[in-house]
Amino acid sequence: MTTTERGIALVAHDNKKPDLLRWAAFNSETLAEHRLFATGTTGTLLQYELGLPVTRLLSGPVGGDQQIGARIAEGLIDLLVFFWDPLEPQPHDPDVKALLRVAAVWNTAVACNVASADLMISSPLLSGDYTPARPDFGDRTLTSDMSAGPEGPSLVA
Could you tell me the pTM of the whole model? Predict the structure, then answer.
């Protein structure tokens, strides 16, 4: 069977990093078949502790969550594995909410704990011919003129 390479983002709040690291170690062979993205310390742990090739982005609170969200919007990430801590307040909670919103808008699969991550990573759809439906927002692209003024680049409809 041919394996479809997917983009998988791995994100974990501090108290959940050990859970994500254990989960990733157990699933390292499967994860190695895909393009991996991770924020800050999570990416460093995955790369150096498990030897997984990871595109490491900024730490979540300083822009990493937005970087993951942008890659979701660009269609580069098919699965977001985000072990967030519901019992601990996060100073960057608006960023977390924005990331989850972008994932929902773009119909991206999200695993928020070990149980949901186990079900998704073991699904035959992960490596199969499955193509999730992505919303069509029309023919809107950034113009090539990035010096459009203080309001930023204009959208072309």
Answer: 0.85
Residue (of 102, 45, 52) closest to 76 by Cα position: 102
Catalytic residue among 14, 19, 65, 95: 65
Question: How does residue 89 score in pLDDT terms, banded at 50, 70 and 90?
Answer: low
Distance CA(99)–CA(72), nearest Å, equals 9
Is the pLDDT confidence value at 133 over 70?
A: yes
Residue 35 bridge partners (DSSP): 7
The yes-or-no answer on residue 65 being catalytic is yes
Polymer length in residues for the chain: 157
Contact at 8 Å (CB) between 84 and 95?
no
Alpha helix locations (H) across the chain? Answer: 17-26, 28-31, 40-50, 64-73, 93-105, 114-121, 124-127
Alpha-carbon span 133 to 125, nearest angstrom: 13
